[in-house]
Design goal:
Elements lengths: L16 H18 L6 H8 L3 H5 L5 H15 L9 H16 L2 H16 L1 H29 L8 H18 L6 H16 L1
Helix pairs in contact: 1-2, 1-6, 4-7, 5-7, 5-8, 5-9, 6-7, 7-8, 8-9
Length: about 200
């Protein structure tokens, strides 16, 4: 789950990439192990082999650290390569997202973050907004390419299409716990494309 280094504040100290990477890894491991409610910055720092000051030089709070790192990973997972066709783009998106959802840490973290809506509504709302905006902007490019190629009509509803794109995969992978199956993803891509073009 390596990500680009966190940008330092203007005029702030130079942040060491190796420390940032260690904190990022420790954060996700700790989050997967204890959940957001029990996660502490002390435990993250201890796992990373640093002090809490290293965290506070990068993030002002547990919530800020959680939002920043989870959004980074979630939005990157929505990258949509241009394969030259709507079906190819949809299949590439489904394949990449399926792999991300099956990551050992993600499969443990995601249910906890979804459950956090009931007892940490603030962070749940922030994550939902930030992740939703970022992912929809990236996946929206997939739809724009299809419209330009004439595969989708110009009046295509991007929000509804993006729900169609993500819904079946999330249900199969996260709710049903269906085993990894490229043939299933191919069939899903066919159904999604048909729904988008309907």
């Amino acid at each position: 789950m390596s990500r680009p280094p966190t940008a330092r504040p203007a005029g702030g100290p130079v942040l060491q990439d190796t420390v940032t990477d260690a904190l990022r890894t420790a954060f996700f491991e700790e989050l997967a192990e204890v959940g957001y409610g029990k996660l502490s910055l002390e435990a993250v720092a201890r796992r990373a082999g640093t002090g809490k000051a290293a965290i506070y030089r990068r993030w002002p709070s547990k919530e800020a650290m959680t939002v920043d790192l989870v959004v980074q990973v979630s939005v990157t997972a929505a990258d949509t390569p241009d394969t030259g066709s709507l079906r190819g783009d949809v299949l590439a998106y489904l394949t990449e997202t399926d792999q991300a959802l099956r990551h050992p840490l993600v499969s443990r973290i995601l249910p906890d973050l979804l459950a956090a809506r009931s007892y940490h509504p603030g962070i749940a709302t922030t994550l939902g907004e930030r992740i939703g905006e970022g992912r929809r902007a990236k996946v929206g490019a997939l739809l724009e390419r299809a419209v330009k190629r004439g595969e989708l009509p110009a009046e295509t509803d991007p929000d509804l299409c993006l729900d169609f794109l993500a819904g079946p995969l999330y249900w199969a992978t996260t709710v049903r716990r269906a085993p990894a199956d490229p043939a299933l993803l191919a069939r899903m891509a066919d159904k999604v494309v048909a729904a988008l073009a309907a």
